[in-house]
Specification:
Blueprint lengths: L1 H4 L9 H29 L7 H5 L8 H21 L18 H7 L8 E17 L3 E7 L5 E7 H4 L1 H10 L5 E10 L5 E12 L14 H6 L1 H7 L1 H23 L3 E2 L5 E2 L10 E5 L4 E5 L4 H9 L4 E9 L11 E10 L3 H20 L3 E3 L5 E3 L5 E4 H9 L9 H10 L9 H12 L8 E7 L15 E9 L2 E8 L4 H16 L10 H8 L5 E7 H9 L3 H4 L7
Parallel strand pairs: 3-5, 6-10, 14-15
Antiparallel strand pairs: 1-2, 1-4, 2-3, 4-5, 7-9, 8-9, 10-11, 11-18, 12-13, 15-16, 16-17, 17-18
Helix pairs in contact: 2-4, 9-10, 10-12, 10-18, 13-15, 14-15
Length: 555
């Protein structure tokens, strides 16, 4: 056995050798495809006419013609595997395989196994073939688990016999899911391996994997995320970190006695945010419905009903533009706390984010994908929107500053403001002069009243509301409020929003009588916050929004 082991050639031995092997595998596959095409086509089912267009979506270094040829060859192998099966549950896609262990578990258990050692332990495990090298009497495959961990499978003529080795060479391809059973050993070069005594194809791949040594294009990563997950460690890490982040958020809320509830996705009236909704139609009720833009108005109904600490993590939909920080469909966290205000809810938000950072990085300093370290620790800055704008622009604006005076500065700076109201000008000017200079996590406090119709007026400053936006990495991550609970003032705000809607503002809210009726039963003083989960992952990872969403919407 040791003579065979000495022939070990695995991905971990040499990056250069692995790249050469990958090129050789691709060339050999194409050559085999050309040779076997005529014979295999007769036995294989007819390939879809549109397979070429389908193949072009895979950025794996293959032409459409090569992809088509490989599919024909692999379909032939599928037929042979099915013909060899003696049970209905076998063939190219068996119901199950007799695994006894996993690749990560075996690697952890034998991480310190010395080179050229045996264990006497027999395991059965499965993984995807990501590296394949067939020689005369000894064949090698690298099997990859879902978490990216790998183990080498060694198939020796002396162990499995001539027929099994011949079938291996004929039927196993890159990308196949493979079951192997055998002894855990370490090769002479120290590579943890399975000396195979039995093997079985667990799933036959009909299309070849992309070249794992070549970076996938962004388009392929987004459109074919399954290939991205196979090929790229960062893609797998993103999924794990997102899961850890959401679990951390839920744990923090649970520790603080918050309850998680679910509110309607389909609503008869859109509200809770200034945004353009998606519309649909219910055949059962014969009525127009909206995909929700926010869960706010229903969560507040829950607070009216006595659920004093409540939150929801779910999907929102906004029929607006898509860019590096915006997606039409996104995950959102909203939370409301009775007898809190925008100061206490800012404290809660900081705790949520810092706990999430600790869950994925072990501390408050996170390392982004490009290697940059970003510190989320300590107490975060809190600045006034008006004061910070005045300091940056050398102005003396107040909530009472006439619109014409604001317009002079906007025109001088070349800013076009869509909706000519005081609050829109203040916010756009603030973004122009201040936003880009924010580096540390910063709560921007006290917004104009006319752009925040659901927020309580400031307790001491006329013309502003108790609202903050949290900026991290220069983009808005979360927003929080002292909630407006006076139903009379809320009605007046809704009426003003209805006037804007009548004037052509597609983002203005409608007058929601059901929500106002709930408020009239009495909602306690409350603080509320909303935060995009996708954007939170951006802040923690340094990646764009299409990387933090596993399956983003694409044309």
């Amino acid at each position: 056995m040791t003579e065979n082991i000495a022939a070990d050639a695995t991905p971990t031995q040499s990056e250069l050798a692995e790249k050469r092997a990958a090129k050789a595998e691709a060339k050999a596959a194409v050559k085999a495809a050309a040779k076997a095409k005529a014979a295999a086509a007769a036995a294989a089912p007819e390939v879809d006419a549109d397979v070429t267009a389908e193949a072009e979506l895979v950025d794996g270094g293959f032409t459409a013609a090569e992809m088509n040829e490989q599919k024909v060859v692999r379909l032939g192998k599928r037929e042979r595997l099915n013909a060899m099966s003696t049970t209905p549950g076998g063939g190219a896609y068996p119901v199950s395989v007799p695994i006894t262990d996993t690749i990560p578990a075996v690697r952890a258990r034998y991480s310190d196994l010395e080179a050229d050692a045996t264990t006497g332990v027999i395991v059965g495990l499965a993984g995807r073939v990501v590296h394949l090298r067939n020689t005369g009497k000894l064949c090698f495959a690298s099997l990859q688990a879902g978490d990216g961990s790998r183990i080498q499978a060694m198939v020796s003529l002396a162990v499995v016999g001539e027929e099994s080795l011949a079938n291996w060479k004929d039927l196993v391809d890159l990308g196949d899911h493979l079951f192997v059973s055998g002894e855990v050993i370490s090769s002479r070069s120290g590579e943890l391996s399975i000396m195979v005594t039995e093997w079985q194809v667990a799933t036959k791949a009909l299309l070849p994997l992309p070249n794992l040594h070549t970076e996938l294009s962004e388009e392929t990563r987004v459109r074919s995320r399954y290939l991205d997950l196979i090929a790229r460690e960062q893609a797998r890490r993103n999924v794990v970190n997102r899961s850890k982040t959401v679990a951390s958020l839920r744990k923090t809320f649970t520790d603080l006695d918050f309850l998680e509830i679910e509110t309607p996705m389909l609503q008869t009236m859109h509200g809770g945010a200034s945004a353009r909704p998606f519309t649909t139609h219910s055949n059962a009720f014969d009525t127009e419905l909206f995909l929700r833009i926010a869960p706010e108005l229903f969560l507040k109904r829950a607070v009216v009903g006595g659920i004093d600490r409540v939150y929801e993590i779910n999907r929102n939909f906004r029929n607006e533009g898509a860019d590096s920080t915006h997606s039409p469909e996104f995950a959102m966290l909203e939370a409301y706390q009775a007898y809190g205000d925008y100061n206490s809810i800012a404290n809660l938000t900081q705790l949520l984010i810092q706990n999430a950072a600790e869950a994925i990085s072990g501390g408050h300093v996170v390392t982004w994908a490009d290697g940059t370290e970003y510190d989320l620790g300590g107490e975060w800055d809190r600045i006034s929107m008006y004061d910070s704008l005045n300091a940056a622009a050398d102005t003396a604006f107040t909530p009472q500053t006439p619109l014409a005076e604001l317009k002079v500065l906007a025109d001088r700076e070349g800013l076009e403001i869509d909706h000519p109201i005081h609050g829109k000008y203040i916010e756009e000017l603030w973004e122009h002069f201040v936003k880009g200079a924010l580096v540390r996590p910063t709560f921007v406090m006290d917004f104009p009243v006319d752009t925040s119709p659901l927020v309580r007026g400031h307790r001491s400053i006329d013309g502003v509301v108790e609202k903050w936006d949290l900026y991290i990495r220069g983009f808005e991550l979360a927003t929080g409020y002292s909630e407006l609970v006076d139903p009379v003032i809320q009605r007046d705000r809704f009426i003003e929003q209805a006037r804007l809607a009548a004037g052509g503002d597609p983002e203005a809210m409608r007058l929601d009588e059901e929500f106002l009726r709930a408020l009239e039963y009495g909602m306690p003083p409350s603080g509320g916050m909303g935060m995009g989960i996708d954007r939170l992952l951006m802040a923690l990872s340094g990646l764009g929004i299409r990387e933090t969403i596993l399956f983003p919407l694409v044309k």
